[in-house]
Design a protein that fits this description.
The chain is an alpha+beta fold and about 230 residues long. About 20% of the residues lie in helices and about 30% in strands. The chain has 5 helices and 9 strands; from the N terminus they run E-H-E-E-H-H-H-E-H-E-E-E-E-E. The protein is globular, with a radius of gyration of 18 Å.
Length: about 230
């Protein structure tokens, strides 16, 4: 099943594999333990694991993987539906051996990162320096939990963003989730401090990591918009 519509006609290639529902009393999936081996296996297949999450959709439990090409920042290759199929086929064969019980309790969904792509690594912030992003923290940080600002410098410990003309450095350890916010760039006041990082940026739609695929039924990203 394919899903994910987007504005202005762009689409996100997504592959869902629905398996027979099996009700189980198994412990809640530990994503922190599952992520490293999945990340390593995807690298062998030529892909980067951008983000991994476990979600519920109705009665279905879904393991959702957002993938990109290895060295995507330099190659600028787009993630296509064929790429999602390739990643899925390689993972399913491996999962059946490494985690034989996993696919009995969860469905697998593989998707490109999308224009509002997750930012989970220092390298992601380096790649999209000068772009607008939304960040939500696990607990209040200097009195707020939700930030929307232009990406500045990033280290292994933190990222600095410019929000309303003020530079704010947020430690990675307290970030709950972070995404690009390309559709808000035109209506957000331009930065004063990180403007140099934006001098050579392509048009916002050029950061799209999807391919336009005719005849593919898609549905919108269900990530709640942060305010």
């Amino acid at each position: 099943m394919l899903d994910r519509n987007g504005p202005d006609g762009w689409v996100r290639p997504t592959l869902k594999v629905f398996l027979p529902t099996v009700f189980s009393t198994k412990a809640i999936l530990d994503l922190q333990k599952l992520q490293p081996p999945i990340e390593q296996q995807l690298e062998l297949l030529g892909f980067e694991l951008v983000y991994l999450e476990s979600v519920k959709e109705g009665r279905d439990s879904i393991l959702r993987l957002y993938i990109d090409h290895l060295h995507g920042a330099t190659s600028k290759r787009k993630v296509t539906l064929d790429d999602c199929v390739t990643a899925n086929d390689g993972l399913v064969t491996w999962l059946d051996v490494a985690f034989p019980d996993l696919r009995e309790i969860m469905n697998l969904e593989i998707s490109s990162p999308g224009m509002e792509r997750p930012l989970t690594k220092t390298a992601h912030y380096h790649r999209f320096a000068g772009r607008l992003c939304r960040i939500q923290t696990k607990q209040p940080f200097n009195g707020q939990k939700r930030f929307k600002g232009w990406i500045g410098e990033a280290t292994h410990e933190s990222v600095t963003i410019e929000e309303d003309g003020v530079l704010k450095t947020i430690p990675f350890e307290i970030i709950q989730k972070s995404r690009l916010a390309p559709f808000d760039e035109d209506k957000t006041p331009q930065p004063k401090h990180v403007v140099a990082l934006r001098s050579d940026l392509p048009d916002v739609h050029d950061i799209n990591e999807e391919a336009d695929i005719d005849g593919v039924e898609t549905s919108a990203d269900n990530e709640d918009q942060e305010k």
